[in-house]
Specification:
The complex is a heterodimer of chains A (about 375) and B (about 150). Chain A has nine helices and 17 strands. Chain B is an alpha+beta fold and about 150 residues long. Chain B has one domain. Chain B contains five helices and six strands, in the order H-H-H-E-E-E-E-E-E-H-H. In chain B, helix 3 runs antiparallel to helix 4. Chain B is globular and about 45 Å long. The chains are: A alpha/beta (about 375), B alpha+beta (about 150). At the A-B interface, helix 3 and helix 9 of A face helix 1 of B.
Chain lengths: ~375, ~150
């Protein structure tokens, strides 16, 4: 064997050995790795979980009935499933680096679906997540509220009842279908009142190119089984009796539909003006129901407004909802703002409410918008 | 071509059903590098840059969003209408945060030509030079952008 052949042969042998070793390691990692029992300490001893290591933290917690919000089903794309790991964290994976800010990295925030449990961990999560459950239910009623907004009424099967605060949301699971290889989860505010413990109602607007909403509008039928987890979220009526200004548009109606019925059921007398913006009359819904509630609730006022140029016959408020709020709200001091809608509507509404004297810390909305 | 793990992750996220129902590549059969190269050349031929295109589109998006669904006139030829959607979507290139969903339909009523803009789409143009694949609802064909927005005097 000459020198060149020897070098080539040696190179091939070394490369093949490395490749084979890598394959063996990957297989071992995938099928054989046994990290044994690990302890996950949550919130400095508030809960201690004994788990078997080897799976991602998100999935491990889910097996223990602790649900961290996640929209992508653990594929490391949505960056929602962030948790703080205060002890035992492995080095940050490249897949996490793209989803974490420098500040989050410094504060030990991690993408839980990308962190494998290999040893004992100490983590911190909001206590409210301990109350989140996985539900199965059946679509009892599905009705179109407008040309692109649909209401689902889901009868709970397992568990058969849900406890939540008006304003909270659930994550509906859209199962794998068509080109979508894995389930995804999308957040929707609960629009039913908490007294209806055996049902959950959701108001969903069709999003072009949306995975979950396309499934709801084209595949889901009455009688189908659905899965969701929740409740999540801090959006709720603050304690006290401060006068409230609600602003919503489109499917942002959902939490307020539940809140109003809850207030009616509990005879809440808190003054409240609800501004609901739409472009045309075909975008309005629940208008009659809200006007009926106005009669039953002396402090409650419903102000629907249309912004489109062609609204012949409309005798109600006209203009962008922010312009309508500007006209109606003389002085915001002492009042609270509650918002639900697109990010554009939220931004514009925050601006106008602040200009009217409502401090930013008294303006509430859910961050998933 | 060498295997680039980062590019593979980007491609994985661009597939239909991962971040959006139809993904970002449409029916375009070209490799991603070829799509990026061709659009880079097309934009250069218009005499502008990705950053300038994104800045112009961003102005349109902001004006349309302020309309809260009402059609807004853009200059003396175009009309932009924002359609709201709740929720946010991450950039498939990674590391850029998330962007509000919702779209703006930008139309020239005289010709009927229209394009769909999104916050994420505009970000990808400006930061990554990615105009999405042909056949995608949100493809921003540089030549069509040039006509509609009169970029580079077009």
């Amino acid at each position: 064997m000459d020198g060149v052949s020897f070098v080539l042969t040696s190179t091939v042998v070394v490369a093949a050995t490395c490749l084979a070793s890598a394959v063996v390691l990957l297989i071992a990692e995938r099928y054989l790795a046994n990290y044994g029992p690990c302890t996950i300490d949550i919130n400095q001893g508030s809960k201690k979980l004994e788990v078997r290591g080897g799976k991602p933290l998100l999935a491990t917690l889910m097996q223990q009935q602790i649900f961290i919000p996640s929209a992508c089903g653990g594929r490391g794309t949505c960056a929602y499933c962030k948790v703080k790991i205060t002890d035992g964290a492995p080095p940050i994976a490249p897949t996490e680096l793209t989803l974490l800010t420098d500040e989050e990295q410094q504060k030990n925030v991690r993408i839980s679906c990308q962190v494998k449990v290999r040893n004992d961990l100490a983590i911190e999560i909001p206590e409210a997540l301990f109350r989140v459950k996985q539900f199965t239910g059946v679509v009892e009623r599905m009705r179109d509220l407008t040309h692109d907004i649909r209401e689902l009424r889901i009868r709970l099967v397992e568990p058969a009842a849900i406890e939540f605060t008006p304003g909270q949301y659930v994550q509906l699971e859209a199962p794998a279908y068509g080109d979508n290889p894995e389930p995804v989860y999308r957040a929707y505010s609960i629009s039913s009142p908490p007294s209806d413990k055996g049902h959950v109602e959701l108001i969903i607007r069709l999003v072009p190119n949306g995975i979950c909403t396309t499934w709801v509008f084209t595949m889901l039928k009455e009688g189908d089984e659905v899965r969701f987890n929740g409740p999540y979220g801090e959006f709720r009526l603050a304690e006290g009796d401060a006068e409230m200004v609600w602003i919503a548009g489109g499917s942002g109606m959902a939490p307020f539909w539940g809140m109003t019925r809850h207030m009616r059921e509990h005879n809440v007398q808190r003054p409240c003006t609800y501004f609901f913006g739409a472009v045309a009359q075909r975008d309005l819904f629940f208008t009659d129901e809200f006007h009926d509630l106005e009669k039953a609730m002396p402090g409650f006022r419903f102000v629907p407004a249309l912004s489109g140029a062609e609204n012949d016959g409309w005798t109600g408020e006209k203009g962008l909802i922010t312009q309508v709020v500007e006209r109606h709200l003389k002085d915001g001091s002492g009042k609270e703002g509650y918002l639900c809608g697109s990010s554009g509507m939220i931004d514009a509404s925050v601006k106008i409410l602040k200009a009217k004297g409502i401090p930013e810390d008294r303006i509430f909305y859910d961050k998933f918008t | 071509m060498e295997h680039d793990p980062h590019l593979q992750r980007v491609l994985d996220r661009m597939r239909s059903g991962v971040l959006s129902r139809d993904g970002f590549l449409g029916t375009d059969p070209r490799p991603l590098e070829e799509v990026l190269d061709a659009d880079r050349s097309a934009v250069a031929a218009l005499g502008t840059t990705h950053e300038e295109v994104a800045a112009r589109l961003g102005e349109v998006l902001d004006k349309a969003r302020a309309g809260l669904g009402t059609p807004i006139r853009i200059g003396d030829r175009l009309v932009a209408t924002h359609r709201e959607a709740m929720g946010r979507i991450p950039c498939p290139f990674g590391g850029c945060g998330t962007f509000p969903k919702g779209e703006v339909e930008l139309t020239d009523p005289a010709t009927g030509e229209s394009l769909f803009l999104t916050a994420l789409g505009i970000h990808m143009v400006g930061k990554h030079g990615f105009y999405q694949g042909r056949g995608s609802r949100y493809r921003l064909e540089p030549t069509a952008l040039g006509r509609l927005m009169q970029l580079g005097g077009g």
